[in-house]
Amino acid sequence: MKSTLKQIAIIGPTASGKSSLAIELAQEYGAAILSLDSLSVYREIDIASAKPTPEERGDIPHYGIDLLEPDEKFDVMKFLELYGEVRERCEREGRPLIVTGGSSFYLKILIEGISPMPRAGAASVAATAQLMGDLAAAYAKLSEIDPVYAAKISENDRYRIEKALLIFFETSLPPTLYFEKNPPISIVGDELPIFEIEIERAALRERIALRTEKMFADGLVDEVCELEYRYGRAPNCMKAIGIREVLSYLDGALGYEETREKIVVNTARLAKRQSTFNKSQFPGRTSAPKERLKESIAPLLDSAR
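^ thats the sequence. predicted structure below, dont judge the formating
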């Protein structure tokens, strides 16, 4: 039986207004929101992630926010599991679903699907962990096992290198051959129209600067100090923009104003990478400034009533 779920995705560079647009639409159409953000998933990272505050969320069901502790691991497989759970719930409740956030790679995998990973045994996990202690050696081993797959990824792509080695040690198959035998399976099922917020570069830079100023006013430095005290610097989330610059400030490597400017510059660079990715990976998206985009989305959500 075909699902009746109405769902859309809202993408765009960081600080372009995705969350506020999603909240406006959710309030008007009774929708739920699934965060497409790899930092908002963590509790205690409230300011650095720029996640909507409890007051902004109101009574709108939000998913993918405050799920894990900062030292817990989050990856695309967990996101796919989360999407499946949220989708089922929205179908039961008759709610539209708005997927939004800056981690567009997760959206790409959600639409295109992902090959099922083999369940790795203890021996495979141990062998992989030993190699991953030296990322250069791990990549060299992968290049020896499967030069075709290794050439497609960066030598610094820890996530893919680790997954590829796990596949090899568990199945004795080069990743390329494993993926041929186990093609991707999409769990979206129905259409998931993608809407991208367009914003001029100068206007976006100004929004980034204002957001950064607000983050400092809200207590970004104190938040990072508490995170470092409780979790150290090892968790991957501690390398996020906004956190890593403040850590450099705490080390004395950056001055206060220099730290703020560094966050603005690095956020603007991230925004440029996000825009490039979205243009190359989602050719069927609808792009427009925020208000015009809202007008384009409205008929789809109206039909869900």
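Residues 7-113+187-302 form a domain with the Rossmann fold fold (CATH 3.40.50.300).
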